Structures are given as structure tokens and as C-alpha cells.
Amino acid sequence: MIGQIFLVGLAIRDNDFHEIEEKPNTPSHFLMTPPPSKPEKKSLEPRAEILSKGALIADEVKIIEVSLKDADPFSNVEIILEKPVKITTMNRAEKFLRIQVEPSLSDLPPTKKIELEGLFNKFSFYRGRKYAEILFYGKGPLGEPIFSTLENGFSRISIPFRKKDIVFPLSCEEIIEDGLRLYRDRVATKAGWCDVFILRANPSLSSLNIFPVLANEGICQKEVLSSLGRRYQALAGVNGAYFTSRGDPIGTLIINRRLISSPIYNRSVFGLSCEKQPIFGNPNFSGSLSCGIFKIEIDGVNQPRGGNQLMIYTPEFARSTLTTVDGIELVVVRNRVIRIERYNALIPPDGIVVSAGSEKAATLAKVRLGDLISLDYHVSEPWDRIQHAVCGGPRLIWEGRIDINGHVEHFDNSIRFGRHPRTALAQTFNGDLLFLVADGRTKRSSGMQLTELAEYLKNLGARFAINMDGGGSSSIFVRGKILNHPSDGKERPISNAILISKN
Fold it and tell me: Within this chain, do residues 267 and 315 fall inside the same structural domain, yes or no?
């Protein structure tokens, strides 16, 4: 094992498994802007041949249960079916969803149909001889539908929804894409006015993809945000995690379920699950190396090696470990030691390097060429099952309350109490993600202290929020260009970024 993180489970999205079928005379995109409060019947009419109530269909699948689960920020409609079915998303927009289920389904219980009609602007359930169609038009945005198979063989359809829209307090918006909006604000601080730029994204939309990227596809690299955005054809993006002078990300970085950089100081992290659900928290790291009768604790992955530490370096890091102090470095391919160096060992493209200093190096010196070693390392739950994660810090808001923990996360006084350009990530009680950049260190824009930043985000409706790398790194990219005025007078090359693209 070389530290790859994989999600194992039964839950899948429709476009992860089912082939999306385009029916004749059906547009591939339907109602990509919110429909009127009284949608025209023609726009919402199903293609299924409607059967009379109680009509029997030879191969219909029985609906076992329909339940409603209240949660924050999303509630859920869950439909349990007696056996696996084929589910196709026919149309999808921010407040609109139409799915097709094959084979057809049994009748929906009348009481549940009435209950669902009360929760949505429009809810329709149609039965045809070959398939059924279910239509939701929400009072608030709908989350990404999740189709899964339960251990007992039943199928589950889960539709996250918000019972109402929570009005975002900033009204002057620019629509970048369905579910992605840009806001500009000018905020009064104790030191003067501050220019603020905010991206508000609906993470549940399948049409949007939110993901972290590395500069020049490597760890010890740096690249300006505009270059990263254009290379990935992104709609928008902001700078991401802190980094060292040579470009190493500081703290947790997970990209496509692979651990690129391990947690440090239990610092705050933003992540996205495989179902595109945001998560904020403080993951831990643990691991060990075993060889024969001895076992050594692993201190981290792709982080600078300190004194009595053991680090794992993967091919994403660099061509070599870049260590300059003597120690022991084991070059490992398929769990077998193929070379032993003292420092700056080359990292094989199909393997890793185990690098240790001080007392741990003395223990590691017992390993010989050709020995088999066993590596077991991971981040704590639920971060071991996450799709993407980016470290920031300190925490700003937790469950709607200002909770700045800079001392606990080992940040220096300049970050904790200084006035700087800032970048922050937040999730509102409405479920949206906010990507904020505040300009600073100029005559026009003062920058913000963390207390001011937290208070501002709270007023925007933030439920969770964390600070990210700031200062000259703070930058925001939209439609091919940088919108803010970086304090260096030009873009600063950065180690990593968080981008938003169109699927």
C-alpha cells in the first residue's frame, strides 16, 4: 500500500453508472434557468403513457417506502424500491429535476403524494407501461440526486432539497453559470474601506465541478492562478492552501481521493465528498511502517522532513525528496526496497521514498536491500473517504458562531491578528459555497483582520467558514482574468488553487 485513498461503497450518482439516454424530441438541457412560478403544462408534461390509478403492469417494481427526513441545510425525500432499477436523469436544473425509472413502478401511496405536493412547487408521479417518471420543482434549490443499492437488494432514490430559498444579502450579482454567481462589495473596516469579491456556488449541481489543482501538476511547483484557470478551462477559481517557499502545500491536500499532502497541526480543512457534499473539519493523520519485527510511526506524507521524523514521498512531490540533511532514505517499489540513500533520493514513478532522520533513521538502518516493508497510513474518518480536500486555517465560523482558533492551529500572530489581503471559504445555511477574496495593503483597500472577516461572513449567512492562504497569494479568477488587485502589484505564483468548471 502506498497511501492511496479509495472510496468503497454502494452509493453512486446516475452519471457514474447509468448511461444517460436522450429521448427523441427531448432537449439535452431543460429549464436551465428557474421556471416561472406557474410552469406551463406543456413544458412539464411527461413522455410516459399515463395509466389509470391502480392499473397493473406485469414487470412493475413495488415501492416499499417513501420517507421524508429533515436535515440542515438539506432535507431528503427517500424512495425505497423492492429491487434494482435503471434510473436516468432526464432534466436537471437548480430547482428542477425529472428522472425516469425502468421498469415502471407501483402506485405512489396517496397520502405521500399529497405530502410531497405540499413540499414542492410542483411534484408529479407518472406511470407508464415501460417506465415511470418523477418530477420535482422545488421551492428552494435541489441537491444532487443519489441512487444507491442497499445491502438487502432494495434500491434507494434520495433527493436532497431545501424547503425554501434563503435570500442572500448581497443583491448586485453577475451570473457566471447556472448555480454560480459573482458579487462585488466594498466593506467598511476599522482601518478603512476594503474591496471584496465573492463567488457563490451551488455545489450539488452536476453541471458544476469544484476541484483543487496543483501548480504545473506537481507539489514543489508554483504557477499563477490565471495560468491554472486557463489550463483547466475553469469558469472561476481562487488560491488555495498555504505553501512553502519552494511550493510544498502545507497541510491536508487530497485530489481525486489520493492523499497528496498529510494533515499538520490539526488545521482546518475544506472538502467535498464523492456525492459533492461539502465538509469542514480538522482531520488527523496516523500511520506506521513495519519491517520484520519492528514498527515505526509515520509522521506525514510529502511534507518537509524535520529532525526525528519519518516522511513518505510520492511521485507527485518532485523528482527527488529534496532533503539536504543526512538520514536514511529507502526507495520502495511494490513494497520492496530497491535502493538505499542518505538524502535527496530519486522518487520512482511507480513507487515511493521513505525518508527518516535522527533516531528513526537509526531504526530504519536495519532495513536491507530487497527487504519487504509494509506501509499503513491514512487520515481520520470521514476524510479517508473524501474526494477532494484543501487545508486552510484558522477556523472562522462553526455552526453559525464565530470561533477563531488560530492559537490551537499553531498560526503566528501576524496571521491571527494582522490586517492582510484574505481568502476564505464558507458554506451558508442554504448549502451554497462562498469563495471570498478581500484586497489589502493598498490605499484603496485596507485588507481585513480575521475578526472582521468572520463577522462579514457571518452576516452573509455562513454556517462554516475557514481562512485560507492570504497576503500576496489572495487572488480570484473569473472568465479568463484576475478580478482583484493582488498586493504584490501582480499575480504571485502559488502552489495550488481551487477551481470551478462546467461539466
Answer: no
Structural domains counted in the chain: 3
pLDDT in tens, 321-376: 999 999 999 999 999 999 999 999 999 999 999 999 999 999 999 999 999 999 99
Domain assignment present for residue 168? The answer is no
452: its cell numbers: 472582521
Residue with the three cell numbers 438487502? 152
Contact assessment for residue 389 and residue 434, using Cβ atoms and an 8 Å cutoff:
no
Question: pLDDT, tens digit, for every residue of 412-445?
Answer: 999 999 999 999 999 998 889 999 999 999 999 9
| Residue 206 shares a structural domain with residue 143 | no
Q: Which residue has the cell 485596507?
A: 446
- Contact (CB, 8 A) for 143 and 96: no
**Which amino acid is it at 277?**
Q
Residue 167: inside a domain: no
Distance of CA 13 to the CA centre of its chain: 15
Ramachandran bin of 152, using left for φ above 0, alpha for ψ from -120 to 50, beta for the remaining angles = alpha
Sign of the alpha-carbon torsion through 443, 449, 455, 459: positive
**Residue 363 sits in which domain range?**
288-378
